[in-house]
Structure prediction request, 224 residues.
Amino acid sequence: MQEESEVERERISRALAAACAALAVASSAAAAHDEHAASDSRYERSVVRVDVPDVVLLDSAGQPVWTEELLRGEGPWLVNFVYTSCSTVCPVMTSTFASARRKLADAGQPVRLVSISIDPEHDTPERLARYASAHGGDASWRFLTGSQQAVRRMQAAFGAYRGDKASHAPLAFLRAKDGARWLRLEGFPSAEALARELRGLACAAPGERPDAATAVAGPPPARR
Prediction:
């Protein structure tokens, strides 16, 4: 098992190295386009530090998943919070995740996705399995549910808890690897923008800061 993990990490490292080399070649040509895209961006970026709690959730097969262990290792990682009966934010973000993943896969750039249900009372593993199947979920895209307490701890750790499911914000969290800071995106980035953010994280030098302010994830400030 250990040897298989080492082989998988080596495969991912080689793929990322090749992707970064290709990105470096293309970056100058894309700079003008990126500058224009940033001017009418549909999302905001910030860097946050997240202390992932060690809670147990269930995947769409009903198997236990330890969150702290899940989010270790090579990335890049892409995490969000959804619920299957949502008809506004969630379908848009799930579709964007799927499109961004396809773009990266076509370029040989792996990404690991985690979508955590914020409606665990209704989102059973069976229901999540149907939702995952409808959106292309597989071993590299985990759909998770669990107890209300465990889910709220995860939301609180990422600063994504809003009190009730209907009030949840369009948030996505990206990280290059274990130990790195998380890049928080709020809004509706296009699939192209999301893929570009993930490539940028994967190619950043160790300790390099994304172009955003650093904060500690937590509850949003009280509304006045």
Summary: Confidence is low (pLDDT under 50) at residues 21-40, 205-209, 212-216, 218-224. DSSP finds six helices and nine strands in the chain.
